[in-house]
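Memo to structure team: turn this sequence into structure tokens by end of day. - J.P.
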Amino acid sequence: MEVDRRVFLATLGVGALEVMTPEDKAEALEHYMMDELDEPAAPAKPEVSDSREQDGPRAPRGTGRLFMPREGLYEPMPDKPTLVDFYNLRFAPARHVLQSASHALKTDQPEKTVMACLLHDVVLNLIKVDHGWWGAQLVEPYVAERVSWGIRYHAPLRFYPDESVGYEYPEMYNRMFGEDYVPPDYIEQAYKYARAHSWYMDARLITLNDKYAFDPDAEVSIEPFIDIIGRNFKQPKEGLGYDNSPSAHMWRTIANPDRPL
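Reply from structure team:
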């Protein structure tokens, strides 16, 4: 995917660059690219101001896409929603995660890797801040521990290359933010922990498949993954959000973003 630097920066809001950390900028870039896959943005204003002032109120940049301004209400979920229902009714079109999982599937990677790729960024519908950690918490009750572990640590690993699997530091980060970009301390600490862990490759493969998941022309669907989900996701009989798991409230929030209380 080609990204126009000026258009991307204009989407951040007037004066945002002055107060954003390098990590904020890198996160915003990936989320912008994912949003462009699903809903290409209208042309942004050509001028990017350095003022801290802005034209009016806006949602925080870390707000999940389900809570952004929109017209109309969301389609109701079934009484006992499944993961596939969430893909069809709340995550759709979900091109980024579907492309990531498709690449893992086509290259004969293990099912747990395919499942991790399919789930690794769906939490962005709820929240964008520290999405690896939030995403792991969302799915932990329903997947193998290695799957949620990989989702948690794929976020810090994005900023560190690994020649053994052909993962290079994203050149786009250099173009967008300069070659002096340095992740914050907590990201580096998480990377060092994950790099020394026996499950390191579970997280690394998510970042590797991530780089093939920004093709605006790719046609993807949840259908090829139905059986994989059935074997690798513990669907609660009560329905996601109603099984009293530690993350059930998160699924209910995603299912009912219009609920006031």
